[in-house]
Write a structure and sequence with these properties.
136 residues, alpha+beta, three-stranded antiparallel beta sheet, two-stranded antiparallel ribbon, 5 strands
């Protein structure tokens, strides 16, 4: 008795070219969406880190101002502070402005410590206000 082997050419043994191309397109879209979310998260984290540094600079300046005598507080009191910061290949320069307003002449003044910086082309600032009274 002879046996004959029938070859079935319609049997699938792999993926077709169209199926591979469709899966590559779908994977590309998913990767693109994931990348956009990650880049946005990276930018937000950088902005947050820059703001945290500005807050640290403002509080350092305010602590120093509180240690000074009432008469010695000036617009240049915190010029000695390290105001440059480099992270993630960004060089941020923090500028400190000190504004004074006497509430009660020769007794109490309102001092505003304003820290300014530029990140991604946007100007940012953090303001810290404090009252300084004259020691009697």
């Amino acid at each position: 008795m002879e046996t004959t082997t029938v070859i079935n050419f319609r049997k699938k043994s792999g993926f077709t070219l169209i199926e591979v191309l469709v899966s590559i397109v779908i994977l590309s879209f998913v990767s693109l969406i994931s990348f956009s979310f990650m880049s946005q998260a990276y930018e937000n984290e950088t902005k947050t880190m820059a703001r945290i540094k500005a807050i640290q600079v403002a509080y350092s300046c305010s602590e120093y101002l509180q240690s000074l005598k009432y008469e010695d507080i000036s617009e240049n009191s915190c010029d000695f502070l390290e105001t440059g910061n480099t992270f993630r290949n960004l060089n941020l320069i923090y500028k400190i402005d000190i504004l004074q307003k006497e509430i009660i002449p020769n007794e109490i003044k309102l001092v505003d410590v304003i820290v300014k910086w530029n990140l991604y082309g946007n100007d940012n600032e953090y303001k810290l206000s404090m009252l300084v009274n004259k020691d009697v």
